[in-house]
Structure formats: C-alpha cells, structure tokens
Amino acid sequence: MTEPVIRIRDLSTRFGEVWIHKGLDLAVERGEMVSLVGGSGSGKTTLLRMVVGLLLPDRGDIELFGEPLFGGGIARERELRRRFGVLFQHGALFSAFNVFDNIAFPLRELKRYDEDAIHDLVMLKLSMVELLPRHGRLMPAELSGGMVKRVALARALALEPELLLLDEPTAGLDPDRSDSFVRLIRMLGEELGLTVMLVTHDLDTLAALSTKVAVLAEQRILAYGSIDEIMHIDHPFIRNFFLSERSVRALQNSGLPAVPN
Amino acid sequence: MSIARIELVVRDDERVVRLTGLWTLATTSHGATGLAAELKDAAQPDAGWDCLGLEAIDSAGAMLLWRAWGRRLPELLLIRPEHRRVFERIEAADHEPRPVSAPISPLHGVIVIGSATIGIGRHVADFLALIGQFGLNLVHVVRFPADLPRREISANLYKSGVRAMPVTALVGFLIGVVLSYLSALQLKQFGADIFIVNIIGLGIVRELGPVLVAILVAGRSGSAMTAQLGVMRVTEEIDALATMGVQRGLRLVFPKVVALIVALPLLVLWSTAIALIGGMVSAQVQLDISYGFFFQTLPRVVPAANLWIGLAKGAVFGMFIALVACHFGLRVRPNTESLSSNTTASVVSAITVVIILDAFFAIATRGIGLPM
Predict the structure, then answer these.
(1) Across the interface, which of B32, B92, B336 has its CB nearest the CB of A96?
(2) Pick from A110, A117, A191: which is nearest to B63 by CB?
(3) What is the pLDDT of residues A98-114, one digit of tens each?
(4) Domain extents for chain B?
C-alpha cells in the first residue's frame, strides 16, 4: 500500500481572472496528519472542497486512494465517497434531525444495518467523541459550538473512513474547548489509523495535530514537510506565519523547539 | 484475502473459532445479517476465540462480534492488544439496549385534541398581539413621521406590487376570457346576449378581481415574506436587529403590511381592468358585442360602488395576507423543517383567511351596489 491517500497533480483553479492555484502538486501518504496553511484567500478551503469533489478544478486531477474522484458510475463514486469523512467549518448538521439521527444518517443510507445495530453504532460514536447518550435527543439548534463540532465529527466518522478532512476544526471554539477537541481528533486519528488533512489558521491546532505541514502560497504548495523543516525555510510568508512573537509562543507551548533567528 | 472469515476448529473437545481477514465496515456490512447468524452459531458458551489472524478491525466489525458475544468479551479470547482496544472502547460505551417506545396512552385522543386546542389558542393570541403591535406602530409613525420606514415600504411595494403585475395581468385576462366565453354559451340560448356586460362587470369588479389577486399575492408575496422572516430568524438576524435597538415590528412587519395595503388595491384595479378587456374581447368574438357598446353599458349596469367595494376588499385582504405571513415567519424555529412547514401554513392560512373575509364582505355589502 504505497499509493498516497491523496494525490493532486498539476492542479489549476481560476476564479474569474484570478488564478487561485497554478500547477499545484501534493501527495499525502497514509497515516499522515497534514495541516494546510496559507494566507486568507490563498485557496485552502477551495482546495479542500476539490479534494472531496464539491468543486471541479479547471485543470489537473485529484486522486484519492489511487482512484480518480469522478467517473466510473454512481456506485463506484459512492463507494469512494464513503471512504472519507468531512468535518465542515460550521458542522453542517441537518437542522431538522436530532443528534442521534444526524449520526445515524450515513449508516441508514448504507441500508445494510437494522435499527438495533445502528443504535449500537451511534452510541459508540457518541462515546468516541465524548458525548453522552442523552445528548442524542438534542436538536442541533440546542447545541453549543463545541458540541456541534463533536457531533459533526461523530457523523464524519460514522462510516469508518480512512481519510478525514477538517475545515477549520477549531474555529469559533474557546481555547479550552479547542484544546480538548484537538486532543480528541489526535487520539481518534491515532487509534483509528486515519489519514487527516485539515485547513487551519490556528497555530496551536497546527502544532498539536499535524505530522506534516503544507504551505499554500504563490498559487502552489510552497513547502511540504514537518513543522521543523518548514520553519527553517526562508520565505516571507513562512517567516510571518511561524516566527511572529505570538506563533513562537504557541509553538513553544506545544513543546516544539523554537527556531533560532 | 480482504474479507471477513470465520473458521471453526474443533480439537479434542475444545471448540475454537478462528477469525481472520478484514473486519471492517466495508467488508462486513454487505452480508451483515448472514455474518451475524454465522457468528451466533459459532458462539457456543464454551467456545474459544482466536482473533490473532485479524488483519484489521474497526468499530463496525467489532460491534458485530460484540453483539454475537452477548455484549461482553468471551472468557477464552486471543487478540492482539491494538485490536483489544477497539473492544475496550465498545465496552466503555456500552449502555442499555435501545429503549422501546412507550405504549400509547389511553388518553391519547384527549391529549391530541387538547394540545391542538392549546395550539390554536396560542396562534390566535399571537396573531391578535401582532395586529395590536401593528396598531401601536401605526400610532407611533403618525406621532413621529421620521420613523416611517420609507425605504422598506418602497422596496416591498416594488417586490410585491410592481413585480406581480405581469402574472396578475395574465391570469386576469384569461379569467375574463373564460368567464365571458362560458356565459356567452348560456346567454345565447336565451337570447339575452347583452346581459354579458352585467355578468362580467359585476363578477369581475366585485368578486373575482379582488379574490384572484389576493390568492396570487398570498402565494407569491406571502410565502416570500414568511421565508424571509424565517431565514432571518434562523441566521439570528432578527436578534441582531433587536440588539441594535431596531424594533422588529416597526422595521420588519410594518412595512410589509403597509406595502400590501397599498399594493393590493392597485393590483386589483390593474387586473380587473385587464380581465374586463379579456371579457370584452371574448364577448365581441362570441356574441358580436362591439367594444363601444360594452364601454357604454358597463358604467350603467355596474354602479361605481362595486369598484369601491373591490378596492376595499383588496386593502383588507392585503393587510391580512401580510399579517398572516409575518405571523408564521416569526414562529419559525431554527431548523429547515420548521421553515418549510411554516411557509406552507402561511400560504394556506392566508388564502383561507382571504376566502373567509370575502364571505364577510359578501354579507356586509349585500345591499350595496347591486341594481335590483
């Protein structure tokens, strides 16, 4: 299994007259936790949406698990989409369903389990994201921000994905909640052997979660490597992003060596 | 190789079930019931379980085993530690089995009727409060004309008035043609051709014009108003307005009601005129009644009072359509289901209210404008 989980080749995207990506390449190996960083409007979320097949690139192709995202009939596309889970920035829970039904939805869509089995699996997912069975009866509107993220994570994990994509997993959470959510993702990622790709602005999240960092700048992946390697690259964006006073503090807190100037 | 396999090994009088392959959601879910039955057969109380040959197991696969084992780990179990962790997680999460839904109470019928009554009572109370609020806003605007939400009123006039002109014209014209055509067929038999002017004139000016326009506007603008307020509620925009000290009654409800009170009579006038033209054209084709005769006869057989009744109806219908739409819009709870059910309820209620009001008008004005 040497095939990368995500392989992006020569990807180009244009919004109107502006090129967002130009000849972008990236290959994410199994088991990696990759943080995608970049300035505002550098096309991080756009890239993530392309990886999950919500947007089509203008040029280039994306393969997941060695297979193209599109083509080969509905059954194949559906099968492929069941191998990854997505956590949207605002959770994207179905507002008309309660928490239980939100998590049960992908399992019911499979049409292979009876309600008893679905109940057991949903309860297991709830406990995996550290929620209680009674939370299953709540409606999305009654949840706090942190709980929305947890439920969304449980739903993303419902089909036992191999790949998890997270869009700003800690945006809108207070530092405490954000820490515990990051811990949860890391624990589940390690235990379930997930490959994770996340978009984040938050250095704490980045330092705590990622084994690799992909820097998106100048319309391509400027650098891809461990945090340590990335920080030694001399580039205005990287310097700005990692070596500002605030960043250094965040990285020090996470136990990574601060870079000598 | 990548499937879930069960192998039963009987050595001396020891039974060992050997599980190999991939036990994941992808491999076990296809034949989940068959696999579960197979496991159930194998799961004798004295059986030992050898899971060392497992390539991978995820929580869906583990749950299948867990259920076959009777929700506990078997006494004789060989398993790799990383796989045992999966079961430990399940064990930690284990709980009471799925609750059976409570039996229907013998008082179910009473409860349904009671809660429906309370629901209707609440609707009526809220609706009366909304009307009261509108009255208060009206008084406020009269006292402080600067607070009149002019831009909102003008925007609503345009959206629900001007933009509704093409569709009301089309429907009005066709109704005029149809009514005239059907009446002509009957009148011809009695040689009472000239009475077509009376029928079309009275029917359209007094009755059909206002009701048709009201139903169209209820479907068009009423649903739009409910959906707009509902989404504003879902996205907390109404709360944001409240924190800025903007009264939602004055800024959101008042302009809509005022706009429809003004726009609906104008639309009634417009579509009544077009419907009369439609009727006139059809009468000319069918009964050879000239346009000139139609024009001359119309004011004689249809007293002007009918037009005023039609316009008054329009204003009242407009007010209630907007109030009903706002009433349901403000009741939307932050989920998609509530939005759709309230929008449906809004349109249905608005049309029903229009018909009921029309009946009241018919009784109240029975002595006015009808040539005896």
Answers:
(1) B336
(2) A117
(3) 899 999 998 888 888 88
(4) 4-93, 119-364
